[in-house]
Here is the input.
Amino acid sequence: MTSPRELAVASWNIHKGVGTDRRRDLARTSAVIAEIGADILALQEVDTRYGTRSGLLDLERLRHDLGLIPVGLQTAGPAHGWHGNLLMVRNALVQEVHRLVLPGFEPRGAMVTDIEIEGQPLRIVNAHLGLLGSSRLAQARALIEKVAGLEARPTLLMGDLNEWRRGGASLKLLGRHFTLAPPRPSFPSRRPILALDRMMTIEAALSDVAIHDSALARRASDHLPLTARLRLAGTGPA
Here is the structure.
């Protein structure tokens, strides 16, 4: 159990609910979300890729069973998220949501969400960067410029950054503006060797950064969930 001033946070690319057995099983995806037990959960690839880009999760069931509320985007259509990115929070007040279209060869996007949780302001950036190094670098610049243009507040950036090199250009650039959490191999889920999923902060501290490595998680997606505990700057023990 985390203390009231220490939040459980997680990021997971659910691979559209398709597991390593090549079956789409959204009940299994939801079961892993329940295992994670996060207060703040950033998900990637929550919508179908083509056609109507329909959302795949049973959001009402997640709300009822786990108390996780999806951050609404106030857009028409069946998609859950923005370019497949979805943020879910527990016991938080959502104040403002910014949708970014990220530059690059592939269609990519990010969500920048301001919330108040446990009486503290927090900004969460949920992103899924591209497969090409040049695109990732341009996307990292776009994220930095967006955050820099907003009113300062503690910030947590997490998502599938698709950078397998510890010294990759996009990570180096992000590391000049954010405090990078230690890398944890999350991909491929059956035998993880690449730290594609990352977390980083401004004016906040992460601890217990780890991979949620359960038998179910190894089957549910090609990525394993990345978890941590978040403490906002200036908050002491509860």
